[in-house]
Write a structure and sequence with these properties.
Length: about 375
């Protein structure tokens, strides 16, 4: 049984979601686990409630709505653009708070006007949060993973390091550790001399054979982990990446970018100056950024009230560009959060690339606020 205040909020929220131009959708509470395990990221994976069916398939209690809504859209709606609203319980292991709590949200799938859809998601998240938490002060924070990716590419970092740094986007500790490693590359001197020589020569065939012999001698089962070929490829990649050194100039440029925190209304000018001073040809990446700000202004959103933080990200692996949060200034608790996830639909089986953006609202925090 839900408290009467939560029931009242949920009924009102249903009406609010419809007024946002969404089609309300319901998704099964028990979901296939693999999409969450493969696509959601470590932060969510470690908090999922897993179970196994009688035929050995992994299932879980629904930890969020984005993946189920996208899967349902692919199965029932194909590629037709649609804006969905959802409302219901989700289940996560948490150190603070109940493991079952309610979320509402919107997923905007298939809209080709990226800037307009992004702005509408931000606008709706801010408006709904302020509507239901009108007695508190909130802060909206915005980041853009695509800008970070463009900076990394323009600096000429190897693709492997670009991917590693992008994976750590939004995790300041992990990002700082990787940048430190790039400034002070490690070596393989702690490895067996023969193994180190094979890796240094980048002889994949010889390395795989060497590893296979060791695994056979030690009785290590390849069924329990990666194959010798996979381990060999990984070791050679690590050795190649370990040779990469981040120059003082590159480190200074990255540090300056990641330290940028300012009102969104001033962000485009600052990013343009940054690119010019660093001699980076990344102006193309600013076109969507600029268009998004214009669309926000068309929706009567004051961009000076939104904080742009260059290093801001969210702990879900499927985000590809825009990320944002609306938080309670009093305690920094997140009330609403979302972003763009254009790759997710293809990963879930869509026949074509499908633009997608959305956000979630934490209704238990709404109720407290």
């Amino acid at each position: 049984m839900y408290p009467s205040s939560m029931k009242k909020m949920m009924l009102a929220m249903e009406e609010s979601l419809v007024q946002c131009g969404t089609e309300l959708i319901d998704c099964d509470i028990v979901q296939p686990a693999e999409p969450f395990l493969n696509m959601a990221g470590e932060d969510l994976r470690r908090r999922i409630f897993l179970t196994q069916s009688t035929n050995g398939q992994n299932h879980c209690l629904r930890p969020e709505f984005t993946i189920p809504v996208c899967s349902d859209h692919i199965q029932n709606n194909g590629s037709a653009p649609q804006r969905y609203g959802y409302l219901g319980p989700v289940f996560r292991q948490r150190q603070v708070g109940k493991t079952e709590f309610h979320q509402a949200g919107i997923e905007d799938l298939g809209d080709p006007d990226i800037a307009k859809a992004d702005a509408l998601a931000i606008s709706d998240a801010m408006r709904l949060t302020n509507q239901y938490c009108n007695n508190i002060s909130t802060l909206t924070t915005l980041g853009d993973q695509n800008i970070f990716a463009t900076v990394l590419q323009a600096l000429g970092l190897p693709l492997g390091w670009q991917q590693r740094l992008l994976h750590a986007f939004g995790n300041p500790d992990a990002l700082e550790l990787m940048l430190t490693t790039l400034r002070n590359p490690s070596d393989t001197s702690n490895l067996d001399a023969k193994l180190s020589t094979i890796i240094e020569n980048e002889d994949h065939k010889a390395l795989a054979s060497y590893l296979a012999n060791i695994m056979q001698e030690t009785g290590y089962s390849t069924h329990a982990s990666r194959s010798p070929d996979e381990i060999a490829a990984r070791l050679i990649e690590q050795q190649q990446l370990a040779k990469v050194h981040l120059s003082d100039e590159q480190f200074s440029i990255l540090s300056k970018f990641l330290s940028m925190e300012l009102p969104l209304s001033e962000a485009l000018s600052s990013l343009t100056s940054f690119a010019s001073e660093a001699n980076l040809d990344i102006q193309k990446a600013f076109e969507l950024f600029s268009a998004r700000i214009s669309q926000l202004e068309n929706l009567d959103i004051d961009s000076s009230k939104i904080q742009y933080v260059a290093a801001f990200g969210r702990p879900l692996d499927y985000y590809t560009g825009l990320v944002f949060e609306v938080s309670n200034k009093a305690n920094d608790e997140v009330l609403a959060a979302g972003g763009r996830y254009d790759r997710l639909m293809s990963l879930l089986g869509a026949n074509s690339v499908t633009p997608a953006v959305g956000f979630s609202l934490w209704l238990d925090r709404f109720e407290v606020a």
